[in-house]
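ENCODED BACKBONE
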Amino acid sequence: MNPLLQGLDPVTANRVIAAAQALEMNRPDQAAFQLTPVLATHPDHPEVLRLHASLLSLRGEHHSALRHMHRALEQRPQEALYHNAYALFLAEAGELDQAIDHLRHACELQPGFVMAWYNLGLFLTRSARFDDARQALRRAVTLAPDYAAARAQLADLLRMDNFRDEAIAEYRKLLAAQPWAGMAWWGLAEIKTLRLGTDESDAIRRALAHPRASDGDRVAMGFALAKAFDDQSRYAESMQALATANEIARRHRTWNAPGFATTIESIRAATCTTDAGQDLGSEVIFIVGMPRSGSTLIEQILASHSQVEGAAELTDLPLLIAEQSKQRQKSYPGWLAEMGTDDWRQLGQRYLERTARWRKSRPIFTDKLPNNWMHIGMIRAMLPGAHIVISRRDAIETCFSCYRQYFPGNDYTRSFPDLASYWRSFDTAATYWAQKEPTHVHPHVYEDLLKDPETHIRQLLTFCNLPFEEACLRFHETQRAVGTPSAMQVREPLRADTARAPRYGDLLNPLRQALGLPLVDAASV
């Protein structure tokens, strides 16, 4: 018998095995059917607790999952599988440092545990410990050369770290074995300095018809195909590839534009600010805005300063919102109006505690999670000393760039009407806060930067209370990992020819119409 099932009778053991198989196939209802009677008879068995924790996690009950897994781990502290599982639940709760510690221990207990090495690489990447992450992912690939997810993640990390040729080699190794691997095709497409020719577009079209390709693969490949066609100046075909990929994605997840707009207005109306004279949070610069609007470039400029650590897209603020919602037993933004000055101060201090690791080498850090534009009022209340930079770019360029980008989870990018609705919500909130809090909220316009880089970089530094440093003008020379789609671009000098909409001419009229912009008469291609 499997040693993990020790102490269970054969009938119960079979139920536990069936529950585990159902969880592996992401069938929580079947798993619950098998596990419910076992929980009644063996509520404290460590393997039952582990599976129950997994089931709770699938239902979104992350804290309960963590508690049950901790009980299991207490009984089997030398079981690598349990440390791996506990690490996953810690990560879901936002405790990445603890998760990494448990994964390291799992790898020590079982050096051949591929999944633990892979998860370690993932979480080290999320913690911006890129050298260690590469080592962990290389170990996973060495142990399991056919493990596609590990090789793809390694290639992604190499791309982020600007190891361009190594990244390309890893993506091509994966595609040689699995030509339908959508994420590998998209990874190649993300290397903006790599032009995809007809050989690649023909190979992608063959892969789209492969019987082993999933819808997820086809979505990723569709975006890669669109990039290949764009590289070849085949703009109508590129638009068709994008439409097909986005339609496949919409079959699985849709976007409630009216509901989102209502929520954003509720957030703005409910949030109260505290005394703007307080300096709590002066250590952080929030960079917010629409994706693909130039936020990565802003961070690269600031991270070139000797006093600033570029921490990338941190999840700490959303996790704090989730914590508060759980504590107050009320969904966000319903509890915002209940918060008093002391509550906001405590929340701000909690944020600074969570992000302390980013101030170990430099006194100031950036938090570049784009969607934090929704929470500007909350940031002002909890961290009145923080600086908030709003990244802005031409509406059609921003929305079209989002539409062209493979964005799992960003469901508003799948259609022009949804994109336009999201843009309007962002534009309204950004304009409101920039006018209301001009000393703490600064709009930084991408097109203005292109026209006069030094003037606008100096303005940005002045707003952030940073002395001017020449290195910020030479941001493209700064060596740091960049984990966004703009990784390659921010390592190059500014270019004035980044506008893409003119190439597509009237092909983008449906987007212009959705945004309420003038239409063009003919395609300029």
Notes: The first helix runs from residue 10 to 24. The mean pLDDT is 92. The radius of gyration is 24 Å. The chain has 25 helices and five strands.
